[in-house]
Amino acid sequence: QVQLVESGGRSVQARGSLRLSCQVSGSIGSTYLLAWCRQAPGNEREGVAVIDSDGDTTYTDCVKGRFTLSQDNRKNNLYLRMNTLRPEDTAMYYCAADYRLGLPRLWAGRFSYWGQGTQVTISS
Asked: Comparing C-alpha atoms, which of 109, 88, 90 is closest to residue 98?
């Protein structure tokens, strides 16, 4: 079982920056996928950024060059650094985890474990 607790969401102006944190606890295992997903009102939940147990990252196109995913050395925390924020980045951001292989990395439906979410609101 894996527990995920997000923090860091708040309201900022466009072109600002935020860093989201996800505290990861429980039995994560040696092969895993950790991700940040988001869901805006009226939209489906979407994968934003993913990191696997080898440290390889994948980003959805609209955040490439603006968002950066990282972990601490002990892999107890997952971070999402978000720069040059836009109003369309407004959403509830969720930390997620999965162990299965062979599924699309950014597909939100693949993740088995979820945090409670942290709200990010970007004003123009």
From this structure: 109
User: Tens digits of per-residue pLDDT, 75-94?
Assistant: 789 999 999 999 999 999 99
Which residue's entry shows tokens 């991700």? 35
Sequence letter at residue 39: Q
| Sign of the CA dihedral running 7, 34, 52, 54 | positive
DSSP states of 55-107 as a string?
Answer: --EEE-GGGTTTEEEEE-TTS-EEEEEE-S--GGG-EEEEEEEE---SS-TT-
Largest separation between any pair of C-alpha atoms in the chain: 42
